[in-house]
Design brief:
alpha/beta; seven-stranded mixed beta sheet; disordered C terminus
């Protein structure tokens, strides 16, 4: 059986945003089907390296096939990106030239893989990216209180009729499949189908709650900045207004030296900016891309650049040689560590 086609969103914009160059080191924190990763590896050849992370083990297997030609330059890790700092420390993969987050679901999840991400296919209510995780969509739908369920649908789905939907869900329990849940939402809303299915926002909200998407995104952005070398790029593609708001506010905050409230007469925050906004306006897919790939229609891309290399980043490189010996498949190379140390020493000399 052939795997569903994976079409990377905003591909040329991602490569340009990351400023990919030969010999660079990059992290794809949501490697998915490997579409963006393949383009990054091609552009960074010769000598480029890529660390690919995904919480979904099936995505890692698909990426291995997609990136087979670059197997000597690629390290794929099945883990949640919220553990980004620990992963990079373990494999000595820092600092890096660019980090990418594509926060959308891949074709693997959407095209009926049996985990219930989409109401287009009948499947059990699961929605877990990591199959080892305990919480499932069924747990939320069938055990959460009406108020808590409504809050999730309203907050993560931005659904105005969340209370009514939650009431109908409670009344119809137990709910075991995606078709059953989608039908209930349609009955609760009682509106004709438009371009967007009535259950879209509810499914989105439950999926976000199951996988703790918002909490993980907030936790990982600072980690990503700390792992970037000087002039390293951070690129994020979001598909949800709440995700985009988190990314936008984080990049804006980190591009300022002072983040005190406007009413504060004297700065007391001691905040130092670490980013420069590369694209002040959000980047969206062209009409041609949306026509070719309708799933890209809600994508928003933001780019920022690291403007300093703090002392803690230098210390992190210094500590690489003290890590316990382990099988890292050649990624912890002493020659590279020494070269990085010399580079940071030169940067520090220039600063003084």
């Amino acid at each position: 059986m052939l795997e569903p086609a994976h079409i990377p969103v905003l591909l040329s914009e991602v490569v340009e945003g990351l400023a990919v160059k030969p010999g660079g080191r990059y992290i794809d924190c949501t490697v998915g089907g490997g579409g963006h990763a393949a383009a990054i590896l091609e552009q960074s050849s010769p000598g480029g390296q890529l660390l690919g992370i995904d919480a979904d083990p099936s995505a890692i297997e698909l990426a291995k096939t997609r990136l087979e030609a670059y197997s000597n330059s690629t390290l794929l890790i099945n883990d949640n990106f919220v553990n980004l700092r620990d992963i990079c420390t373990r494999f000595g993969f820092s600092p890096v030239h660019g980090i990418l987050f594509d926060l959308g679901l891949s074709s693997i999840q959407l095209n009926g893989d049996g985990r219930g991400f989409s109401f287009q296919h009948d499947a059990p209510l699961d929605m877990r990216l990591n199959p080892d995780q305990k919480l499932t969509a069924s747990d939320i739908v069938n055990t959460y209180s009406e108020r808590k369920l409504a809050d999730i649908i309203e907050t993560y789905g931005e659904e105005k009729r969340s209370r009514q939907i939650a009431r109908f869900i409670i009344r119809e329990r137990p709910i075991e499949t995606t078709f059953h849940l989608a039908r209930i939402v349609e009955q609760a809303i009682k509106s004709p189908r438009g371009k967007i299915h009535p259950a879209t926002k509810t499914f989105q909200a439950i999926r976000i709650a199951v996988n703790h998407d918002m909490e993980n995104l907030e936790a990982v952005l600072k980690q990503a900045v700390d792992l970037l070398g000087s002039e390293g790029r951070l690129v994020v593609i979001s598909y949800h207004s709440l995700e985009d708001r988190i990314v936008k506010q984080f990049m804006q905050r980190e591009s300022k030296d002072c983040i005190c409230p406007p009413s504060t007469p004297i700065c007391t925050c001691s905040h130092t900016r670490s980013l420069k906004l590369v694209a002040r306006k959000v980047i969206k897919p062209s009409p041609e891309e949306v026509l070719f790939n309708p799933r890209s229609r809600s994508a928003k891309l933001r780019v920022a650049e690291r403007i300093t290399v703090p002392a803690e980043s230098y210390a992190m490189v210094e500590n690489l040689n003290s890590l316990p010996r382990m099988d890292t498949q050649g990624w912890r190379r002493s020659a590279l560590v020494h070269r990085l140390r010399r580079t940071f020493m030169a940067l520090q000399s220039e600063c003084f």
